[in-house]
Amino acid sequence: MKVLVSYASAGEGHKKAAVSVYEELKRQSPPGAEIILADSLDYTSKFFKFTYMMGYIFMVKYTPTLWGFFYYILDTKFFYALVWPFRRLTNWVNTRKLVKFLKKENFDVCVSAHFMMTELLSWLKMRKKINTSLVTVITDYKAHNVWLGKCVDAYIVGAEDTRQNLIQRGIPESKIRVFGIPIEKKFSVLKNKGDIIKKMSVEKHKFSVLVMGGGFGVGPIKEIVCDLQKIDLDCQILVVCGRNQLLYEQLSSLKSGFKKPTFIFGFCNNMDEIMSLSDVMISKVGGMASSESLACTLPIIGIAPIPGQEARNAKFLLRNGVGFKIKKPSQASTVVLGLLSDETGLSEIKNKISRLAKPESARDIAEFILKSLWKN
Known about the structure:
Blueprint: E1 2-7, H1 12-28, E2 34-39, H2 46-62, H3 64-73, H4 77-94, H5 96-105, E3 109-112, H6 115-126, E4 133-137, E5 154-157, H7 160-168, E6 176-178, H8 193-200, E7 207-212, H9 221-228, E8 235-240, H10 245-254, E9 262-265, H11 271-277, E10 280-283, H12 287-295, E11 300-303, H13 309-319, E12 323-326, H14 331-341, H15 343-356, H16 361-373
Parallel strand pairs: 1-2, 1-3, 3-4, 4-5, 5-6, 7-8, 7-10, 8-9, 10-11, 11-12
């Protein structure tokens, strides 16, 4: 019995979602089960993998408006129908090694945390070339045409809003499960804050503002951190720069002039601990970051969401009363001050977050796969 958990290394979120499900499947599966984690792009040409990864990062960072244009236009049935044959041809040319791998291994179940595998495997199933149960995990709070496949056996979504959106798109209700966007188990584990404070050498009993820009550290992080130094609030600032080494160096060089205790980190594998110390998070609103913040009962202030999935995630958070959206870096300080001055309002937000959060999403997804889709 074999399960493939797949992702594509275009952004950190898809990989983190896949890894969380993979770890839970390994923990819950019976002896002798084979659980494999794979990056779909590893089974494509080096050129295709590089352009796929860097093209996404370049557009999101330097031409977000153009990215948003393509995102929204491809989410219309007419234009997606026009483009789909070209997407299928491009994927066919570049994923022949991946197709060979799927046919050879003949997995019982494939969990897809990226739409490329969903499109490919659904196409293979439709042509009776493979008989693998396909579970698609949508990693944002609203679906998109690229996530849909005629032969998907089950869709895992983050919230009731997403379920309703899929139903409106014609997906049978019986195929949809609202388990949440999967996150690592450590985000649901109660922390000893005293031990973490000591380990990270941050200050005790201070209102803590977490500022980050995803795994790649994008966005006006430096401007926000500098502006927060001016507010009339006794707080400390935790900054996660991700893989943005230039941002890390710039902030480190400015740190001696900061008026508030400011702690600067690079890429971190202990975001659960950092979030547990924080009172509010200022961040890009990717699906994974949003899901993690909800699990930690942490209000999120979305930094100038890029058109597309971030803008839709921000709307979801706003609609449910658990987040905020800012267009300019200077607006972050205003929101932070408002939260601190309204304790009742902050408490209400945290209550709403608790009702919306699904910290055990990966566990529930693994249980569903093993009970409902495993071929005996």
